Request: fold
Amino acid sequence: MYIDEELIFYNVSLENQDQLFDWMANELEKKDYVTKDFRDAIKKREQEFPTGLQLNGLNVSIPHADAKYAKNRKLVIIKPENSITFKNMLNFEPIEVDIVFGLIVDDHKQHLEILQKVSQLLRKQEVIQEIKAVHSKSELLSLMQKHFIN
Reply:
């Protein structure tokens, strides 16, 4: 998975999940990484299959849409200024998410592989502590490049 500096966002001021998805879709559409239908697809998928994940000390979300809405393979990392409410993928209860890992994958087979890699990485307590210790975009970028193959 290629970690692209232009897709790492730190302390973004977003109020809610809908605003986050609109903002993310705008960024990805500008770069021509997704189709114009991506915005609606990611919102619909999140409603049907929530992606919030409560970890030991950190809540994350891994939103994604079907491969047909992607034109590239990218990982979008968004650290919002304040946590954003998502539904927990396990019990659909609301959780406050601290960081979002948006998957943009144009290949159905690689989609699951990348999702598993992100999930496995986030199960490591040392990675969670490293994410919590980040204080800038450059630190977040370095951390992600350390853990993902470029």
